[in-house]
Structures are given as structure tokens and as C-alpha cells.
Specification:
4-stranded mixed β-sheet, 246 residues, globular, alpha/beta, Rossmann fold
Length: 246
């Protein structure tokens, strides 16, 4: 049995009034700790990878970590195999997943995280990617990955940037909750954790804890959604028996 998985799954990279990863920098520093010296950044969710890497590098260096961007490597698979920590940023989840499939990186990342125990941090699209599938992303399918199946580091799905219905809005489109309910109308669909901006999920082995400054809403198929405050223990979601309801 290998070392326990360690995941930091952040809803969003930027919170209103703060800079890039500013709202979660304390959690980032605590999560990577002093053992990690360099983080492998995966910027595939955005088109301008150079600019994205520059932004991430400046932030991580300010926190005391070196950052290598996978798009600068001549051998992305080898970059993952040699990495001591991974951070996958936000952007378009379909674009991100397609590039990972195209470069045969999904299994490599999964192995490093689940078998070798290196820490994995995701933000927005990178958080979607850590779950069973990207079915509950908010993004448009601007490209077509060969599958919607993702890394499966946890046996449920997440909806980042979760928005509560605005009772004063005149917008007639579906609310986020309605879209998640539509997803659960399909058989054998797993729980969906709606992470509001400012929220994040810390997974250490078989323990999952809600962190951040905002709460989350949990959707289980066939049940009424429930509200949860920071500090909530979501470890029960990590058991496969809770992952799907027929």
C-alpha cells in the first residue's frame, strides 16, 4: 500500500478583491509544506500558456516554491514522472482534458498521485479534473476530448464556482442547481459537491475536509441538497459505496 493521497481542490483561482491564489495562499503553503521544493504546473486549460505560467510562477515563487510548466518540457510524460508536486490551473475543462488525453498524461498523473503520493492541487478546471468526470463543469465544449472521464482521484464530482439562485434575477435560464439535478436524472451518477468561490476541499488519505471562507452545497441523486459550512467532514464521500446511486 502506497502513501496516502493528498489533494487540495480549490473552487477558483481569484476571489474578488484579491490577487491570483491570494485567498488560499495560506492553505497552499500548508499543503505543500517544506518538503516540496518545485511544483509542476499544467497550464493546458488556457490558450496562452506562457502568460499563464508566468502568473503561476510569480505566485509560487512568492510562496517559496520553484515552478516548472509542463508546456516548456520536451517530454511531458517524463516531466510528470519526475515531479514532486502537481498544480493544474483553471480555464476550459474540455481543452484541458483533451490535451491530457492527447499527450497520454492522465494515467501518469494518476499514478504519481495515487501510487507515489505526491501532492496534487487543482483550481477550477484542475479541480474538475481530479474527480470522476468533467460532466459537472461550467464550461462550453469548445473541443472534444475522447472521453469525459477524468483522473478519478476522488469517487464523486465537483461543480466549482457554484452559484446560488438569485431570487431577484429576471434571467430565465437554468440555475446551477437545476443543471446538477438534470445530471442526477441520469442513472448511476455520483454525488456532486458544489464548491462556492472561496471554498476548497482538502483530502488527506481517507479524510476530506471543507476549507475556505465560504460553504458548499452537496447534491446526492434522489435527495434534497444540503448546506455545509467550512470545517465540514466530507470523508464519507471518499467511500465508493456512496459514489453512485442507481
Amino acid at each position: 500500500m502506497g502513501p496516502p493521497r493528498r489533494l487540495l481542490l480549490v473552487s477558483n483561482s481569484t476571489l474578488r478583491g484579491g490577487g491570483y491564489l491570494g485567498h488560499c495562499q495560506q492553505q497552499v503553503r500548508s499543503f505543500f509544506g517544506q518538503k516540496v521544493k518545485r511544483v509542476l504546473f499544467i497550464p493546458y486549460a488556457l490558450h496562452d500558456r506562457d502568460a499563464y505560467a508566468k502568473t503561476a510562477r510569480e505566485k509560487f515563487e512568492s510562496l517559496g516554491y520553484g515552478l516548472d510548466s509542463i508546456h516548456e518540457s520536451s517530454d511531458p510524460v517524463e516531466a510528470v514522472r519526475k515531479s514532486e508536486a502537481i498544480f493544474i490551473g483553471g480555464g476550459n475543462t474540455f481543452r484541458l482534458l483533451k490535451v491530457l488525453y492527447d499527450n497520454s498524461l492522465l494515467q501518469e498523473i494518476r499514478k504519481r498521485v495515487l501510487e507515489d503520493g505526491i501532492p496534487y492541487m487543482g483550481s477550477s478546471a484542475g479541480t474538475n479534473l481530479a474527480t470522476i468526470s468533467i460532466n459537472t463543469t461550467n464550461d462550453m465544449p469548445i473541443v472534444y476530448p475522447p472521453s469525459l472521464q477524468a483522473l478519478g482521484l476522488v469517487p464523486f464530482n465537483i461543480n466549482p464556482h457554484y452559484l446560488d439562485p438569485d431570487v431577484n434575477s429576471t434571467h430565465m435560464g437554468e440555475t446551477r442547481a437545476e443543471r446538477i439535478r438534470q445530471y442526477h436524472e441520469e442513472p448511476n451518477t455520483p454525488p456532486v459537491l458544489g464548491l462556492r468561490e472561496g471554498a476548497m476541499l482538502l483530502v488527506e488519505g481517507d479524510k476530506a475536509t471543507l476549507q475556505g471562507v465560504t460553504g458548499a452545497r452537496l447534491f446526492l441523486r434522489g435527495e434534497k441538497p444540503t448546506e455545509h459550512e467550512p470545517g465540514t467532514d466530507f470523508s464519507f464521500l471518499l467511500t465508493d459505496s456512496n459514489s453512485q446511486k442507481p
